[in-house]
Amino acid sequence: MIRDITIGQFYPVDSPIHRLDARVKLTMTFIYIITLFMINSFIGYFFVIGTLLAVIKVSKVPIKFMLKGIKSIMLIIIFTAFINLFMTRGEQILWQWGFLSLTLEGIFLALKMCIRLVLLIIGSSVLTLTTTPIQLTDAIEYMLRPFKKIGVPAHEIAMMMTIALRFIPTLLDETDKIMKAQQARGADFDTGNLMQKAKSLIPILVPLFISAFRRAEELAMAMEARCYHGDENRTRMNRMTMQRRDYHALVMGLVYIVAIFGLRYVSYLLPFII
């Protein structure tokens, strides 16, 4: 389960998606996330799934590696499906017991929400799997640069976000090592009720927090030793420049937005596809 989390990892391979400017990929990810909440029909979800599969194919990242990240949020997906199934009010009631009711509208809403969560995780993973932490830091800082005029610390925000993403795989590996060490000492994390399983996590959380604070202190000392002073008089070895392929990607993103709006308009005209 720990190794199934793919967000924050970088998959090193040469592909057209990897060679795109990080600012373009970040912009396209934001557009993708926003459009996920605009879709109101299953035909729209089919279109997004087809587009996402095409992007994954071009990125040369194995689809099995992408789907591994779904296992880590399976509990959230099940909880979301339960809430939408039995808490959604509708006209066509299929089953009812007390305050719980299963409606046809609830089934469709639960299915849409689960698909949306899966697409959200996979789409976000494409960004981190095809972009190095340094490129992502520069892209976030560049896009937050206009907000510096109103006092927003763009560089510090970009640095914190990137460090958080960078240390997700490291902390996951540390958690895996701690769990194996505790299991070698006779710890059991699989049996028992919910409270017993929660208590069994204490021997994992305590050393994990200690390790995280130790790594944070080591990182702070390393940055101070290299005379790091934030964005003050900072220079970059690699300048971010837009190329022809980046503009082509932006045009394709514009076509994607137009298609989403078109499908949303069609869903209003044809209610039977909702």
Automatic annotation (TrEMBL):
Keywords attached to this Swiss-Prot or TrEMBL record, sorted alphabetically, are: Cell membrane, Membrane, Transmembrane, Transmembrane helix, Transport
Mind telling me which InterPro entries this protein's record contains? ABC/ECF_trnsptr_transmembrane, ECF_transporter_component, EcfT
* UniProt cross-references to Pfam families, sorted A to Z: CbiQ (PF02361)
TM spans (from-to): 30-56, 68-87, 93-110, 117-134, 154-172, 247-266
> What Gene Ontology terms describe what this protein does at the molecular function level?
transmembrane transporter activity
Question: Which Gene Ontology cellular-component terms appear in the entry?
Answer: plasma membrane
Its annotated compartments are: Cell membrane
Principal cellular location given in the protein's record: membrane
**Topological type in the membrane:** Multi-pass membrane protein
Q: Which HAMAP family match?
A: EcfT
Per UniProt, subunit arrangement is: Forms a stable energy-coupling factor (ECF) transporter complex composed of 2 membrane-embedded substrate-binding proteins (S component), 2 ATP-binding proteins (A component) and 2 transmembrane proteins (T component).
Q: Please state which protein family the record places this protein in.
A: Belongs to the energy-coupling factor EcfT family.
Q: What does this protein do?
A: Transmembrane (T) component of an energy-coupling factor (ECF) ABC-transporter complex. Unlike classic ABC transporters this ECF transporter provides the energy necessary to transport a number of different substrates.
Protein name in the entry: Energy-coupling factor transporter transmembrane protein EcfT
Source organism of the structure: Anaerotignum neopropionicum
As recorded in Swiss-Prot or TrEMBL, the protein's gene is named ecfT
